[in-house]
């Protein structure tokens, strides 16, 4: 019942993630992910071109597909439509395990656990794992750097140690790795499995603790981060630097006064001071080797480098708008 030689398919939906793809891909492939199925939502920073090139280089491991919602923008939700469409692909049907995650999320296997095989050796066999999401703040960065994401951001947005000492729970979202045989609608955080506890399956957290029926048979997508992260957690770099946050807001919708207040609140919440966490602050030697292999491809490297220039141009355009400048001031970009 461990991963063993069973195939793991990672599903993701992206928009304008060009500078981060190669680091993210190398990291997850060396954890034990076998295959990627990526849907994009109309990109202008080379994200789609980078994924297309990766598919040419690694056709058995990478599949890029425009999200069908780009043709039906008034129907459904971006993630839900992509996950429904994914079920029609042969590589999805052939996968033994499914893992739904985003480009700003890095699965962080901890301690002596470096791969999914080792994770299940530590926890014992299971059929689903919900990894606790740990948000990371901006680390005081104003501008977008060229260093790896996992190296630039090492401070969490929660004070976990103080909460643990006080016996206070810290409820955060999860992302879930689960067997394809597990029935129920696929959702971004977890499958919805109303009868999971009756089907003979086992669902655990990142410490290997079995999840109760009230979680497995419900729709809850958050658990207590205290005590659930011994062998694995999800590092969530949701804002990155102030400049990168401005680009994140822009990609979701036009930068205008309607989004200004909500965006500032999002930043303030995600940028709270917390604990330093260095457990996933460096790519593994295997991941670094894969990253360098990908960068050795001239076409891929040029697309990657161009993505930075495209985003810089977009940032300049944002800062020339009144609402963009206001948001930049509100989050301390000019400080």
Supply database-style keywords:
335 residues; alpha/beta; ten-stranded mixed sheet
Structure description:
- With 335 residues, the chain is α/β, with parallel strands linked by helices.
- It has one domain.
- Helices cover 38% and strands 16% of the residues.
- Strands 1, 2, 3, 4, 5, 6, 7, 8, 9 and 10 form a ten-stranded mixed beta sheet that branches.
- β1, α1 and β2 form a beta-alpha-beta unit.
- α1 crosses α11, α2 runs antiparallel to α12 and α9 crosses α12.
Q: What's the overall average pLDDT, rounded?
A: 94
Number of helices: 13
Strand content: 15-25%
Shape: globular
Number of domains: 1
Structural class: alpha/beta
Radius of gyration: 20 Å
Measured distance between first and last alpha carbons: 53 Å
Helix content range: 25-40%
Low-pLDDT runs of 5+ residues are: 253-258
What are the secondary-structure elements, in order, as H or E? EHEHEHHEEHEHHEEHEEHHHHH
* Main pleated-sheet profile: 10 strands, mixed
């Amino acid at each position: 019942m461990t991963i063993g030689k069973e195939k793991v398919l990672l599903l993701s939906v992206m928009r304008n993630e060009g500078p981060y793809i190669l680091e993210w891909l190398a990291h997850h492939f060396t954890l034990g992910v076998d295959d990627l199925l990526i849907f994009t939502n109309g990109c202008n920073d080379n994200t789609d071109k980078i994924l297309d090139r990766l598919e040419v280089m690694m056709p058995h491991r990478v599949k890029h597909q425009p999200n069908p919602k780009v043709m039906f923008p008034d129907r459904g939700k971006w993630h839900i439509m992509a996950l429904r469409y994914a079920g029609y692909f042969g590589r999805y049907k052939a996968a033994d395990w499914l893992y739904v995650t985003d480009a700003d999320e890095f699965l962080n296997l901890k301690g002596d656990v470096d791969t999914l095989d080792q994770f299940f050796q530590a926890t014992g066999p299971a059929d689903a794992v919900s990894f606790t999401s740990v948000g990371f703040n901006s680390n005081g960065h104003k501008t977008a750097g060229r260093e790896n994401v996992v190296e630039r951001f090492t401070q969490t947005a929660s004070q976990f140690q103080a909460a643990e000492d006080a016996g206070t729970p810290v409820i955060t979202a999860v992302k879930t790795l689960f067997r394809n045989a597990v029935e129920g609608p696929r959702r971004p955080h977890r499958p919805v499995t109303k009868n999971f506890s009756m089907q003979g399956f086992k669902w655990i957290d990142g410490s290997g603790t079995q999840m109760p029926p009230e979680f497995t048979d419900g729709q809850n997508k958050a658990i207590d981060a205290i005590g659930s992260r011994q062998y694995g957690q999800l590092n969530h770099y949701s804002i990155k630097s102030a400049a990168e946050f401005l680009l994140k807001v822009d990609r979701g919708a036009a930068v205008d006064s309607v989004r200004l207040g909500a965006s500032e609140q999002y930043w303030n919440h995600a940028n709270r001071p917390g604990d330093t966490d260095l457990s996933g602050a460096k790519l593994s030697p295997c991941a670094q080797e894969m990253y360098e292999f990908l960068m050795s491809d001239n076409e891929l490297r040029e697309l990657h480098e161009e993505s930075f220039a495209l985003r810089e141009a977009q940032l300049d355009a944002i800062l020339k708008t009144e609402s963009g400048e206001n948001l930049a001031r509100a989050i301390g970009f000019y400080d």
